[in-house]
Amino acid sequence: MNEHHRELSEWALSLLPSDISPRNILDVGCGGGMQLLMLGKKYPKAHLNGADPSDEAVKLTSETNAQGIESGRCRVDMSPVEELPYPNGSFDLVSAFETYFFWKDLDAALGEIRRVLSPGGKLVVVSEQYPDPAFEKRNAEYAKRTGMRLVKNEEMISAMGVHGFSAEFKTVPEKNWVCFIATKY
C-alpha cells in the first residue's frame, strides 16, 4: 500500500500551496503510514498525527513512523474519521489519501474534519479513482471487490462547501486521479 500510492502522493503534495507551513498535521485513514512520512519531510517542523479505524493500519503506521513516535513528533490513534479524538481547531492541515470512499458517512466525516481544523486550515483529499466513463469498468470492479463508494468530483466540492470549506480539485485524467484542496473558512 505504501509503495503503490507513492507517485499519487507525490503529485498531490506538489499541489499544496507553497506558502503554508502547518504546525500540526493529521492524516485520516493513515493506512501504512507513508503519507505521514512524506508530510513530515515536506513540513519538517510539523507535529504529525495519524488516525485510522483499523488496528492493523495503526500498527503499520506506527512501525513506519517509529522514529517520529520515539522522538515525540508523531502520534497514531485508532479512530474512525467520523469520531476524531482531538480538540476543536487542533490541526492546520488534514489529509485523506485513498480513504474517503470507505468513510461510513461523508457528511459526518467532513463535519468532523472541519471541527478539528483551525480557521484557514487546509484539507487535502486524494484518490486514484473518480467517476469517469473511461474508467467505469475498472472502478466498478474495485467497488465490488472493496466496497468503496466514489463520489463525483462536483458532488465532493458541493459537500465540502456545505461544511464550510472553499474547495477546488485537480485531476490527472489519463490516470483517473483526483486531488481536492479545501480551506476552512
Characterise the protein shown here.
- By secondary structure, the chain is of the alpha/beta class.
- It has one domain: Vaccinia Virus protein VP39 (Rossmann fold, 3-Layer(aba) Sandwich), CATH 3.40.50.
- Helix content is 36%, strand content 27%.
- The protein contains seven helices and seven strands; from the N terminus they run αβαβααββαβααββ.
- Helix 1 packs parallel to helix 2.
- The longest helix is centred in the middle third of the chain and has 11 residues.
- The chain is globular, with a radius of gyration of 15 Å.
- The chain starts with 5 loop residues before the first helix and ends with a strand.
- The model has no long low-confidence stretch (mean pLDDT 96).
What is the end-to-end distance? 33 Å
**Helix and strand string, N-terminal first?**
HEHEHHEEHEHHEE
Estimate what percentage of residues fall within beta strands: 25-35%
What average pLDDT do the residues reach?
96
